[in-house]
Design brief:
Structural class: alpha/beta
Helix content: 25-40%
Number of domains: 1
Strand content: 15-25%
CATH topology: Nucleotidyltransferase, domain 5
Strand order of the largest sheet: 4-3-2-1-5-6
CATH class: Alpha Beta
CATH architecture: 2-Layer Sandwich
Order of helices and strands: EEEEHEHEHHH
CATH superfamily: Ribonuclease H-like superfamily/Ribonuclease H
Distance between the termini: 13 Å
Oligomer: single chain
Length: 185
Amino acid sequence: MTLKQFAVIDTETTWMDDVMSVGIVIGESDTFELVDQRYYVLTPFKNHGGMYAHALYAGGVRPDLECPRETAMAELKKFLSKHKTAAIFAYNAGFDYRHLPELSNFTWHDIMKLAAYKQHNPGIPQYAECYGTGRLKRGYGVESVYRMLSNDYDYYETHNALCDAVDELKIMKLLNHKIERYRGI
């Protein structure tokens, strides 16, 4: 899986489990630096409410497109093609994968499969409760893992899809694994 660039994606959903926003960032495979980003707010779902509907425009973030899902997915695929990436990463990737079937032909990788395990995450403290597999018993969400790795205990996940995708890319950088390490995990 020699990649020059890869995508990190995050979605936010409505109370009825419809996608209301998609954030995607392109990272550089050797440095995990942010290369490009897009943010889509989906109509009419943005008006249907959801646990994180208040965060759609958090921190002044404005969408690149506010449009129907079909338009957003077509543009997102062009964006991925422009960056020549077929690999998509997400924290708890199964959730985003299930909500974005239009992207099922891409190769998906789960950041959490390294981030939540003691043997792969040097930020997990020795005293943390883990299963025999090394996975944390609790506290393995984006916010907890970001705090562990960065030592920034004032950090809070915004639940804005773009901001969260940026933070998930930062988690990958802080984990300090080569991109190939995510294959087969």
